[in-house]
Amino acid sequence: MKIRIAIVDDHPMIIDGLKHMLAAYPHIVLEDTYSTGEELMLGLARRLPDVILLDIQLPEMTGDKLAPQILKKYPGIKILALTSVDSALYIYNMIKEGVKGYVLKNSASASIIRAIECVHQGEQYIEGSLKEKVERFAQKLKSKEDLKPSLTAKEREVLEWTVKGLSIQEIAEKIFLGQRTVEYYRSNLLLKLDARNLADLIRKAIESGLVD
Length: 212
What we know:
The protein is of the alpha/beta class. The protein has helices at 12-22, 37-44, 63-73, 88-96, 109-120, 128-146, 153-163, 168-175, 179-192, 198-207; strands at 3-8, 28-34, 51-54, 78-83, 101-104, 125-126. A 6-stranded parallel β-sheet has the order 2-1-3-4-5-6, with helices on both faces. 27% of the residues are buried.
């Protein structure tokens, strides 16, 4: 079964190197190459590959911003990030956005081919040297998430309006509660977030991701 691919990379030498490498694998067919995200989106309107090899560091838009645009319009396409960026944050974000695989440009040919085959089959592929790094990063994020205090719906609502700068009276009018009830909820919030005052409450709410 043929795997039709497209490459998005703004470095001609990288594309030439990949072409040379892929020539040894007749089941993988390189149909198109693009140097920008704009070129890619125009090209996809003409012809869809099975797999896109997507660089992260593109001139006008990073890969983690381009990937969701591609998948929103063409959800059947599989995306494999092929890059020199080994940041756990970037890998985590790319996978979160729906990218199926992540492999470095300096990887062995066999690893790149294996990655293409895996994502084509709908499997996730993260290069071995990066997998542990991403798992540690994800665990760290989860630990932070677990530390978030549990808030009721009303407490969260009061917190959101507090962060936006509304007074107790204004919040009471917004959510149709008495001022003393809003004061009660705000006192609970100070306790739950271990905040010394209103400014400290707002800072901790933002830092912990409880509000945008």
